[in-house]
Structure formats: structure tokens, C-alpha cells
Design brief:
By secondary structure, the protein is mostly helical. It has one domain. The protein is built from 4 helices and no strands. The model has no long low-confidence stretch (mean pLDDT 88).
Length: 109
């Protein structure tokens, strides 16, 4: 099992062009922290707009909340990456992702 995990980590490091396990750990930390941070930031925004889960159906509230978390996550990912010294990785990651979803026009080559 340990060998299989190690091989998967090596493949991931090669795919992301990462040299060290420390950098890989920092990247995982940024993904985890940013997900929690984006969710935390979305809560007061939903309250500001009067989107309360007590007032709305869960079938309405949660899609709106997730749709709000998505852009917050995308905006804050390079910022949190910067804090952990991984801005370049996350800036490239973000541009690649946005190009894939059709927003590549936001970035000039």
C-alpha cells in the first residue's frame, strides 16, 4: 500500500512539476485551507443578500451558496497560495482551469 501511494505522489509531483515533498504538502494545505476559507467568506455574503437557509428551501439555498463559493474560491486560491509561498503554482493552476471552463479570454498569452 505504501508503495502504491508513493508512486501516486511521484506521478502527481511530475504532473505538477513539483520538486519536493514539502512543496506538495504546502499545495495540499493551500487547497484545504482555501476551501474552508471560501465557505467561511460565503456565509456573511449570503446573509447580506438575505439568503437564509431557514427561509429558503434546501434545493434553492445550497445551489446558490455553492455558486457563490465557486468564484470566491477561484479568487482566493492564488492569494492563499501566496501566503504559503506557492503563488506561481496556483496562478498557473488558476489560468489553466479558467481556460478549460471557457474564461481563457481573461488572460493574454
Amino acid at each position: 500500500m505504501k508503495i502504491k501511494v508513493s508512486l501516486q505522489m511521484e506521478k502527481l509531483k511530475k504532473r505538477w512539476n513539483i520538486k519536493s515533498n514539502i512543496q506538495l504538502l504546502l499545495i495540499f494545505l493551500v487547497f484545504a485551507i482555501n476551501g474552508s476559507f471560501a465557505s467561511w467568506v460565503a456565509k456573511p455574503i449570503t446573509i447580506f443578500f438575505g439568503l437564509d437557509k431557514e427561509l429558503l428551501s434546501p434545493f434553492t439555498y445550497w445551489p446558490i451558496r455553492i455558486a457563490l463559493i465557486f468564484p470566491i474560491y477561484q479568487i482566493t486560491l492564488p492569494l492563499v497560495g501566496f501566503i504559503f509561498g506557492q503563488f506561481n503554482f496556483f496562478w498557473k493552476f488558476e489560468k489553466k482551469f479558467l481556460r478549460r471552463i471557457g474564461l481563457g479570454f481573461l488572460f493574454k498569452n
